[in-house]
Amino acid sequence: MAFISSGYNPDKPMEGRISDIGPRHFTEFLPPVIAKNFGKWDYHEILEPGLLCHTGVSGDKAYTVRCGTARLMTVTHIREICDIADKFCGGFLRFTTRNNIEFILESLDEAKELMKFLEAQKFEGGSYKFPVGGTGAGVTNIVHTQGWVHCHTPATDASGTVKATMDAVFDDFKEMKLPAPVRISMACCLNMCGAVHCSDIAILGIHRKPPIIDHKYLDNLCEIPLAVAACPTGAVRPSKVEIDGETYKTVAIKEERCMFCGNCYTMCPSLPLSDGEGDGIAIMVGGKISNRLTKPAFSKVVVPFVPNEPPRWPTMTKVIKKILDTYAAEANKYERLGDWANRIGWERFFEKCDLEFSAHLIDDFRDPAYYTWRQTSQFKW
Amino acid sequence: MAKHKTPLLDQLESGPWPSFVSDIKQEAENRAKNEKGLDYQVAVDCPEDLLGVLEMSYTDGETHWKHGGIVGVFGYGGGVIGRYCDQPEMFPGVAHFHTVRVAQPTGKWYTTDFLRQLMDIWDLRGSGLTNMHGATGDIVMLGTTTPQLEEIFWELTHDMNNDLGGSGSNLRTPAACMGMSRCEYACYDSQELCYNLTQEYQDELHRPAFPYKFKFKFDACPNGCVAAIARSDLGFLGTWKDPIKIDQEKVAAYVGGEIAPNAGAHAGRDWGAFDIQKEVVDLCPSQCLSYEGGKLVMDHKECVRCMHCINTMPQALKIGDERGVSMFCGAKAPILDGPQMGSLLVPFVEVNKDDDYQAIKDIIENVWDWWMDEGKNRERIGETMKRLGFAALAEAAGVGIDPRQVQEPRHNPYIFWKAEDVEGGWERDIDDFRKRHQR
Known about the structure:
Chain A has helices at residues 32-36, 75-89, 108-119, 159-168, 170-174, 215-221, 224-230, 263-267, 314-330, 337-344, 346-352; strands spanning 41-48, 51-56, 61-67, 72-74, 92-95, 101-105, 184-187, 201-206, 236-243, 246-253, 280-285, 300-307. Chain A is α+β, with helices and mostly antiparallel strands. Chain B has 3 domains: 7-159, 2-Layer Sandwich (Alpha-Beta Plaits), CATH 3.30.70; 175-221 and 325-437, 2-Layer Sandwich (Sulfite Reductase Hemoprotein, domain 1), CATH 3.30.413.10; 245-318, Alpha-Beta Plaits.
């Protein structure tokens, strides 16, 4: 390949340089009906799963067709999406916070035609390219992180666990038959780039083995004081070891203090935690973000560990499906998953969802743990 | 013929949900065909090698990506994340596979022209793989090599008038809900505020000077679609002060079954006829609603603006007119000190575009000054706030003290009084004390 220059001259890096311009202004990207009714919307309706209608004070209507994506997308696939937006929507589209695509149309007939078109698009392997759904009292797309596709600290894969989960709950993406929306989120390590700590159901990659110490290289690759300071529990301290008659400056780890967060590895590549047997998934439930009815809430760990079972993680999807189905059958209308569990009591939640309660589920991390223990005789048998 | 055998990944091609494996295979095929005759600037077969290395992870149960290393564009400390494969001989196409974060237009609205331009850059100079979008909100371009970084940046800025996003210990790319562009609940223009602050703080976004990452998120109402309250160091949540507006005729239409409750969100199941008493009045968390004689009545002073009644009857109930923003501080995921929800720092502040949002900027800058002075390396502001106390943050932010900032008052009486709080101060005379008390 011949190197193609964009115009950048490495000998004069400041020449003609443009920086700190930020993103383009969003008004450049609004479809005409959106721009016209900006700030003047009256109400909205979900006409059917995946189809929203927003009515402006002016009487204008904007029909939104929503479809799911894998989030990890290729240039070819995005160009296909552009072709669709050009053909049906005057060259406009939007992505939602949960990695769905939304196409805006001005007539119901066109919206229905687009829905039919989207449902007919399939990958060669057989899956939908643009499944329509993800609205109202259902499961919408899963927000997730990089996993084994691109990240250096994951305990599991993200795209694969998400694909397996969405296949298992696909009906609830296509329909709106749950008591309330259920937000499933995925983060491939405790660092939680995906911030799954407030999700109805969270899939969380976790490590279970303390870091391996690469003694011979540690002092060359990292600052020992930073690695020491990185440990939230004080498990890492400076040390020296002798290997083959040579003394190396390194660290020692008090293994019983390790909570497997991986923060030391982030500061020091010579302290890897990844392990085929040690790594897997914790399942958390009952978090929420909205202020509706009840306060925003953290997710709670209900399954401390499920092993990695690529490519389809059957144990994980079975647990998720059981929780989702039990919630769907038992919760009240408008009641979020965590609110249902709070109402019936967590001891009952474990019983109904066929989950084992173990010592690993009792919080022992610092002060906030105390507030999760029971200080009342009001429990259920 | 595929370059690597991927029997495990192939199993992710079946099932209804869009398969990223099928998509990557499609890309690999298209790059191999190269119908446009591009002189690809990174390995043509990097999609195949990405599948190869991922298959290896599926077999091993371990990642094969190494720590970043320092790569980036001149003058910026963020926006590019270095990434290298730990099996470069087996997968040379992804041996160097850096991520480029691109600032997304607020609300994630796009024209196809913009996306196509971006895809042309990424076709030529990158792997052809992206994330739409990263968890913080940026457009994420997955996989390129170091020599391409300045070229990509040049084309982004010169040809597309668009910048990189944030990474590292700096302000991360701010994100907003789609707000007024398509939502009747928007209490302020979340997109405009997000855009304005993004532009104002470009220096903080591109040149790491903070103890750790810092995120702004903008939700235009208490429904919280971008999770500002849970995942941003400073979260902005639209709210209002005056009464919810009630259209009694429309209320009657909901009660009469002419309009589906909750905008039709529960249509997939027969929940029976809408029961306003059971579904709205009895569920109101502050019990400020009653339904008498066919009219919905609200004791608006008691309303906590949870949005339930409005969400349930969006055609009948509208948010109030005296609108502004609540600011929450310190939300984060567990690393390091456990998860934290944003704490209400400012119950209400005006969102005033006419004075360039000065009231909001004053608070932000006060908060940053305090955190940069007090925060330890890799300490999120939520942790600094916990370590030094909420009152210290509120004082530094210059926002005043208000019972709305707490769920309930303190449980312990270990109050850190200051000398100036106490009559006569702390300076005392031991001889004077001994006049009253023998040794």
